[in-house]
Amino acid sequence: MSCVLVKVLFFATFRKKYGVKELTVNCDGTVKGLIESASKILGEDFLNDVYDREREKVRDDLIFAVNGRNIKDLGGDVKLKDQDVVSIFPPLAGG
Amino acid sequence: MGNILKVDLTTGTLRSEPISEDIAKKYLGGKGYAVYLLYNYLKEYESKGFSPTDINPLGPENVLIFATGPGTGIPGFPCSGRYHVMALRSPLTGSIGSANSGGEWGPFLKFSGYDMVVIEGASEDPVYLSIVDGSAELRSASDLWGKNVFDTCRILSRRVGGKNISVACIGPAGENLVRMACIMNDEHRAAGRTGLGAVMGSKNLKAIVVSGKKEVPVANRDVFREVSRRCLETMRKNRVTGEGLPTYGTSILINVINTAGGLPYKNWQTGVNPYADKISGETLAETYLTGRRACWGCTIGCGRVTSVSSGPFQIIGTEGPEYESIWALGGSTGVKDLDAIVKANHYCDEFGMDPISMGSTIAAAMELNERGYIPKEDLQGLDLKFGNSTALVEAVWRTAYKAGFGKYLALGSKKLCEIYGHPEISMSVKGLEMPAYDPRAMKGIGLTYATANRGGCHVTGYTVSAEILGIPEKIDPLTPEGKAKWAKLFQDFTCVVNSTVNCLFSTFALGAKDYAELLSAVTGWSLSEDDVLRIGERIYNLERVIINKLGFDGKDDTLPKRLLEEPMPEGPAKGHIVELEKMKEEYYRLRGWVNGVPTAEKLKELEIEI
Ligand code: SF4
What is the Å distance from ligand 1's center to B105 Cα? Predict the structure, then answer.
């Protein structure tokens, strides 16, 4: 299994709930692997907050970006590389 | 149907006219009805042999309209505490003037017995308009002239006394005819854009105070109760309108938009702000937030109550700043000191100025200065460098009073940059400073900015919702493909919202079908989703006919050169420009316009009689 170091940034309610702004996570280079590795540090809740287990993908209402690009615009299935930056936002809006 | 109060300030006469059901069926109320009335003023003007382009935005011939809509002031109608203001011509842009505000003024105008107020002419001396329980009169405002927004609101509220009182007014900026002056109400709420405060100032109209107890009629109460219950439940369960906006307000967008590489920094030289987190909604909530405030009847409550507890920018118990104000006063100016941004925003409220145009004009001046285009003697010691928080705060009050370099800033970025020989540095469309989204990182909003009738505006058609936030569905921000359809749909639907008159934030949870049901219940008409969107399209087209008459067409539907020719230097949108012509071509085809002008067939199809 490949070992990839990814920086994860947390925003809004995620930052508040998990008390962390930024985390460096060691994972297998898949999005699911990254979320699982992060939840080993942050707790099981994190997995449920971010991942839709039934549909096996990141929860639809979140903004989950890799290097600033929403994974929905990248086709959903992204191979992560060393030093990639993942940003996770809860559903939000403004104007 | 309600009544329109028409006030001729030149003669001091007031008259009441009933709202026409036929016009309301075609244009709803709020913005739509006001656009219809403005078009008729233009026709009358032309029939007297004048050209619309002769209208002086600050002359007595300009007309100012305050309008509520069929949803305003009805308990249970989601986010219905707003009003819309329009003018024939904006002193900032020369195009149509248009702005929208929350607070309590809109509903209280309706409770006072009028749905709309039309202001014609100009008074010789300062006056204010009082509308209390159906009785309207003009009174001397000579004791109020020179007073700031907060004092004016408090004095007039006390003078009327009792409950349900709201004041819309101008501050010193409006009196001094600052081109970005806005109309303020309930102290911190603003009909912010296109300089309508200067129009009030030019008419010597300091304020309109409204109060009353009249109930707003609902045609079909039982149906309305059911539709309202369902819509409010949808909004409560929606994670944006039920959780995100109430918790963080709009400034939570700072980090989102920066992550997407579209948060303009240092007058749009890049879309990535290295200090975004320092001025973000998260930081605001942790450090400055002391409470929330909602507009009348709103279940979202996105307004922020904040304080800077110590230091040179101390201010206790202010409101805001919102996303746009933080960006314009902070991001665009490179200021990373949130204390200074909160204070600058407070001054914008106190003096009555639009923070978007204010911050953007200061940012343009900073770029002009850093490139050596402003003679030192003009600046009179004002150290306009990117990131200088003291200069930011000083520049704001100097603008309100046209003091020192403030007299140049008070003209807005377009005229300022023209004066110093570099119009390309003004990041504006049709003279209106663009808001906080760089379209090189989200192409659709570039098309909206370019084609918005009032100029560089995001709330005319907020495609950011689909491009970045994924509402109602996610589309790729970096492609120009398919954006024309979205821009048109958002623009048409927004006309419905602004004519209802409701808050745009309701549309993160509610769609055109919900609006059709709500409107049908309160008016008694039977409106489908297609019907309301067609009304929206009609309003957008008639507004376009007006701006065509004011001299604007396809050549003005454009963007600053920087966005069309300078590739984004960094971030996820690195290398991107805006492919405007490609999107515009498709957009005009969908609109049925040629070179930015609606065709006769299109107007006929929309039953617009011109
Ligand atoms: S969402 Fe915010 S701006 Fe809109 S009506 Fe509610 S409080 Fe006012």
Answer: 13
